[in-house]
């Protein structure tokens, strides 16, 4: 996913003189292509996320399209006031890119996990939040971010995520029905889509026909897609590599509550807990019930 | 402009600050009076087309708006009517999008980073364009300011100017007692800037200090909070206090008195 993003960034830098890339001293070697394609428009600001976001705002006020890159928790939490005032309030054309969304950097510990980032970005007026599910979609999301005139938070996983989706142009604000299913719907965003699809397979083997509804955009939220899912079945399980408050699960809950349609939701995410346990992404997802197995058990209980 | 003209402009700007304060009953009068001379020199003598000015200490909004009004960027009557009033258009901290307002102020420690971004873009696009950013000395408590200072010094951004409105007072007391950052010029020099200390109410000295340099230029403008109204001068409480309509005569008498004395 990360490499796919950088391919897109390099292409954007070559095509558009306005595109700049900033990093908070992260991404060794990853900006080489961009630097060659866009000489003079790459800047490592040092380990200083607040300054980086302010600089990105200043570039955007000057007509540039800056992509500011760091690990997801650092760019969203550390620099939140700059994001709020200089970017969101000013509707600046800044693209914030967080790598390692969720618990992608599992063993590095909770400081390197981002399980509040979607909530922090989603509450900001004017902010668009993109959560692609696989590398190809990440490439499309980067291009869509550049084309959109306004603040964007692009949440990436790490690297080596499988291809899960047919390639199609990234449509900001539109959910994708990845799998049809009449008994219940699993709503998801980001690369944890893989667990949702695996869970749907297992549920099907047990006679439960689960659909998978993927949200590559969490804000603006596709409430129509939720309503359409409710018309197929009132049962919804949301799963996100994030706290179960403030992110996708909350957006789904809000959409159900205001849809006027009957619906029952189970939110799967980190439940008011940091992932303190030492372990890989897979280990942490399993331990917190966010893997396919956990999803199957939540979905079966709901469908029973 | 002649020295007399500049003095007259600064005086008229101070009158406008007081009109805004009287009409709105709003605070931050002392902060606004301390930077009027700096901004008058900047807007009348220094800024050229393509240059940009960013007010980072947004609480001095009335002083900034007053100088913008004197420079013809905004209308003085609309300013007095619309400053901090219900349904008005000029908030107590300037918001990007208002005429002449480049950045939203109010959260301290933001402006210099944005100025670095502007200076980087200007260095590429409009050779010779300069970016000026005005900060408070209390604002220098914010760590983000030092991130920006360090990077600008490292990059040698010669088209960037930071001006510190060093009035020596901040939220709960004297800057030297709350968080002493002196010697400021030595610190700024050490961060790769060309620090220039001057009297922040001496127009000729300010104009000289704002001349271009080879490195980023930091002007430490030694000012007096509340300058021009004797009972507000160097008084912390005029960060918070507001004027009542019945104070009109006494405050304008003080302002005129200071002008006669000068």
Short descriptors:
heterodimer, A: 304 residues, alpha/beta, 7-stranded mixed β-sheet, 12 helices, 40% helix, B: alpha/beta, two-stranded antiparallel sheet, globular
Rg calculated over all Cα atoms of chain B: 17 Å
Strand residue content of chain A: 15-25%
Number of strands of chain A: 12
DSSP helical segment count of chain A: 12
Question: What is the spatial order of strands in the main beta sheet of chain A?
Answer: 2-1-3-4-6-5-10
Q: How many DSSP helices of chain B?
A: 11
The H/E string of chain A reads HEHEHEHHEHEHEEEHEEHEHEHH
What's the SSE pattern of chain B? HHHEHHHEHEEEHHEHEH
What does this structure look like?
- The complex is a heterodimer of chains A (304) and B (262).
- Helices cover 40% and strands 20% of the residues of chain A.
- Chain A is of the alpha/beta class and 304 residues long.
- Chain A has a 7-stranded mixed sheet, with helices on both faces. Chain A has a 5-stranded mixed sheet with strand order 7-9-8-11-12, with helices on both faces.
- In chain A, strand 11, helix 10 and strand 12 form a beta-alpha-beta unit.
- In chain A, helix 3 runs parallel beside helix 5.
- The model of chain A has no long low-confidence stretch (mean pLDDT 97).
- By secondary structure, chain B is of the alpha/beta class.
- Chain B is built from 11 helices and 7 strands.
- Chain B has a 5-stranded parallel sheet with strand order 1-2-3-7-6, sandwiched between helices. In chain B, strands 4-5 form a two-stranded antiparallel sheet.
- In chain B, strand 2, helix 7 and strand 3 form a beta-alpha-beta unit.
- In chain B, helix 1 crosses helix 3, helix 1 packs across helix 4 and helix 1 runs antiparallel to helix 11.
- The longest helix of chain B has 22 residues.
- The radius of gyration of chain B is 17 Å and the shape is globular.
- Chain B starts with a helix and ends with a helix.
